[in-house]
Amino acid sequence: xxxxxxxxxxxxxxxxxxxxxxxxxxxxxxxxxxxxxxxxxxxxxxxxxxxxxxxxxxxxxxxxxxxxxxxxxxxxxxxxxxxxxxxxxxxxxxxxxxxxxxxxxxxxxxxxxxxxxxxxxxxxxxxxxxxxxxxxxxxxxxxxxxxxxxxxxxxxxxxxxxxxxxxxxxxxxxxxxxxxxxxxxxxxxxxxxxxxxxxxxxxxxxxxxxxxxxxxxxxxxxxxxxxxxxxxxxxxxxxxxxxx
Length: 244
Ligand SMILES: C[S@@+](CC[C@H](N)C(=O)[O-])C[C@H]1O[C@@H](n2cnc3c(N)ncnc32)[C@H](O)[C@@H]1O
Hints:
Blueprint: H1 12-17, H2 26-36, E1 43-46, H3 54-59, E2 64-68, H4 71-79, E3 87-90, E4 102-107, H5 118-130, E5 132-143, H6 145-148, E6 155-162, E7 167-175, E8 180-189, E9 192-201, H7 205-214, E10 218-223, E11 237-243
Parallel strand pairs: 1-2, 1-4, 2-3, 4-5
Antiparallel strand pairs: 5-11, 6-7, 7-8, 8-9, 10-11
The structure holds S-adenosylmethionine (SAM).
């Protein structure tokens, strides 16, 4: 997408509304993650954001560290109760710029796809492997591409929310060569139009599995959701666990 700035996509404007509508999977995700890193942990969340998962996991007694590159998102985390207890390193999560090893590293809500090249996604897996304990787990939760971009002719327009005073459209265009999805949430309201652009690089679960193998990891579990739903051809997302 011409002019797209990844640093801006989670700037002040997005951070301000990020927690307005919880995704709804928080309790199930925390229960799943806590089983892999019982208190006291520690666990490392790549792209920790506003602490949607990190804070409730920390509240269970797990020490949670995080990495993120958005000052605006991390400021929201800091402003929440318990937010100062999360040790956040500012930087690119593909670098995993932290010290030490963790029994659990996790990356949820499709965020592996925020790395826009295959090389960066591969580098992320390699760096995670360097920071896992011998029996540690790397959990990736991401959409199955076919369920997400609902493509006709590599593009779509979805009516995301339709209200009396406001309509939100999700508009996307996909390039099957680069696997890049250029997407904008378009908010139409009497006061004007607001755009929330984001670019992501989708990968099938099988491609992520190969990235893990390049990093010396292998798939140990795959589920269709945080509740341990079976992963099938109809699954819209996968929760994948990688270990040595
Ligand atoms: C969809 S939010 C997810 C936040 C949190 N994990 C959650 O589940 O609510 C994506 C987050 O990834 C961060 N992010 C995106 N690309 C990044 C990168 N290359 N390095 C560090 N953080 C990144 C953004 O700043 C944002 O906080």
